[in-house]
Amino acid sequence: MHELSLAENVMRIIEDEAITQQFRRVRSVTLEIGKLAAVEPEAMRFAFDAVTRDTLAAGARLELIETPGQGSCADCAATVAMDEVLMLCPQCGSGRVRVIGGDRMRVLELEGE
């Protein structure tokens, strides 16, 4: 479950930002997760709860915002919606569609006090 290592990385970001913003406690964390990022939302929630236990983010609300996958066809230059990394272009049938969006995860917002 790579979500555990992702949650640990999120926790490092939270700790760094808490120092910068002088938070005593983090109330909520918003993550933007791309449809093609290979992150299972429920596994991420479980890992986040485990990693934040006994930290300044313990009990913080985790909001997940999923962004759509997006690709570009090398043959017809169409920009297409993607639900999976490997797919045929719905415009021309080419297998040369490359991912151009929705394949990342990032901390979008932190709310602290």
Structural account:
- By secondary structure, the chain is α+β, with helices and mostly antiparallel strands.
- The protein has one domain: hypothetical protein PF0899 fold (2-Layer Sandwich).
- Helices cover 27% and strands 34% of the residues.
- The strands form two sheets. A three-stranded mixed sheet has the order 2-1-6, with helices on one face.
- β3 and β4 form a beta hairpin.
- α1 crosses α2.
- The longest helix has 19 residues.
Give descriptors for this structure.
113 residues, three-stranded mixed sheet, alpha+beta, 2 helices, three-stranded antiparallel sheet, hypothetical protein PF0899 fold
Assembly category: single chain
- Quickly count the domains: 1
How would you write the strand order of the largest sheet? 2-1-6
**Tally of extended strands?**
6
Q: What is the rounded distance between the termini?
A: 31 Å
Low-confidence stretches: none
Average pLDDT:
96
Which structural class should the secondary elements be placed in?
A: alpha+beta
CATH topology-level name = hypothetical protein PF0899 fold
Q: What is the count of helical runs?
A: 2
Q: Major β-sheet, in short?
A: 3 strands, mixed
Measured as a percent range, the helix fraction is 25-40%
Report strand %.
25-35%
Shape field: elongated
Radius of gyration, CA atoms, in whole angstroms: 17 Å
SSE series: HEHEEEEE
CATH class: Alpha Beta
Going by CATH, the architecture would be 2-Layer Sandwich
